[in-house]
Known about the structure:
The complex is a heterodimer. By secondary structure, chain A is mainly alpha-helical. Chain A has a domain at about 55-265. In chain A, about 65% of the residues lie in helices and about 0% in strands. Chain A contains 14 helices and two strands. Chain A has a two-stranded antiparallel sheet with strand order 1-2. In chain A, helix 3 runs antiparallel to helix 10, helix 3 (about 55-75) packs across helix 11 and helix 11 (about 265-280) packs across helix 12. Chain B is α/β, with parallel strands linked by helices. Chain B has one domain: Rossmann fold (3-Layer(aba) Sandwich). In chain B, helix 7 links the parallel strand 7 (about 155-160) and strand 8 (about 190-195). In chain B, helix 3 (about 95-100) runs parallel beside helix 6. The longest helix of chain B is centred in the last third of the chain and has 17 residues, at about 170-185. Chains A and B meet through helix 8, helix 9 and helix 14 of A and helix 2, helix 3 and helix 6 of B.
Amino acid sequence: MINIRDKGAAIWENWGRPQRVAFAVILIAVVGLLPFGGNFSFTSFLNTPVSSYQAVLVYPVGMFVLMALGLNIVVGKSGLLDLGYVAFFAIGGYTAGLLGEYTSLNTWEILPIGMAAAMVAGVALGLPTLRLRGDYLAIVTLGFGEIVRIVALNTQSLGASTGIAAIPTPPKTFGLIFDIEHSNSYFWVVLIMILLVIWMVRRFTVRRPGRAWEAIRQDEDVAILMGVPILKYKIWSFSIGAAIGGAAGVIFASKTQYVAPNEFTFNVSVLILACVVFGGMGNIWGVILGGVILAYLPERIRFISNARQLVFGLTLVVIMNLRPDGILPRKKREKLGVKNKSVKEGSDV
Amino acid sequence: MRLEVKDLRVQYGKIEAIKGISFVVEEGEIVTLIGANGAGKTTTLKTISGLRPVASGQIIYNGEDISKMPAHERVNLGISQAPEGRGIFPGMTVLENLEIGKYSRKDRKNEMQEDLEKIYSLFPRLKERSSQAGGTLSGGEQQMLAIGRAMMARPKVLLLDEPSMGLAPMMIQNIFNIITEINTVLGTTILLVEQNAQQALQRANRAYILETGHIVKGAKASDLLNDPAVREAYLGTGAHS
């Protein structure tokens, strides 16, 4: 099978700076114009049958991509299996709900607070648990995701099962109106956040934190022997991922104007993780593609109602069989290395 | 620089793997710990580098007890380990593996080129393979990379865990020659853990024999090499042969 990732990377490598900038500008412009993509007869196939296409682009598509990028730092880059990522999404959402209800702060002021709250939760969860490895970490994070939801469900001041309603929408900003009629404004905000996260991840990858995460993911013990303070970098990875989840939560709450415990189930954690794995763990472009497909596809095929989940599940199974490392996996040499690991202990020269 | 282990005990759960051992590595020496499988050799090295916690006892380095110090800080002090099974990062290139060996060095930018040259002159093979993924190297090359990577941290003490494991005889000779060179030319102190007692005793200044968590003997390596009981037990060539 052709390796799209390597082909793409090769073309990119051959480009000079002007070509790269031009490509990035065109790409961002095309994605920015996506909300109008359903307006023409030849593109009307993009329209989703039940929810409006513009709304679908914000939630789930934009949100899933944003969260998948956040979770990718944790799972894909540092190899920490987090099964409770929804917790940070929920903490961001509830922060927006509470501050929206009891203070006069607007969404943009709440956004950093929501991110900080999620980050603090990430550190609080990470400090004791990131000493655990593999499966144990997965179980503890799974538990944490459920605990956050159950606490919300049983806390009267958080609205218990009915949640918090009438969360204020963001104020009019740069001429953009944010309300239920104007999904596009939210889409552009989410797009900007996604771009910021891509920029940040790309910076990290080639610098010390990226190297440290890579080492931790490949072999924790050896990373320690190289002098990498692994707990510190795991907590950084965890809390940066958490902050992104929190940001998504704040925007989500201000978009739907409503948060309730049943929005934040284990399902969400699994779906976001599926975006990462399906797209290609560790490779941001793969993860973005995974997020887009996994969020958009179920909405697009809503017309087949009951069989929808079946078709969705089948698609996942078929594609994961065809491309077990995801649609756009990370660099190929990685695979070579892993293959070789089994003979590592063997006797040879 | 002097490394001293004093009455060290290490446990895995309730099982005591190291039962109170003491030994010294003086500056500039090659000291070897030999012993059978399960004697506690690897555990001892892991405890010195900080991967395993100490149950009791002390690890004294330069007069300071480092037994409670986090592992990554010990690397900063100049204790570097090439782990058992080589521990190459399979998905990183040879060059990236070497670069990450410098992780602990504050002055890594300026030292990088100089030290890469140094490692490449010790192991010319690594230079040829520099852009290849670590996981695609042969066992011998991986061992070279593991030692080279540990040397990138400019260690004062180099801990080597079974560098001969799984290698062909020719390659074992080769690796041990380089270990000797690192000690004599670069002046790096070496603590070597080995099952290949013959090679280890030939190369080392002093040796300790480890049996099920105890040190049963410590002497000059050359004396042990000629000791009939040691020959019988560890060299497979008893007095009668």
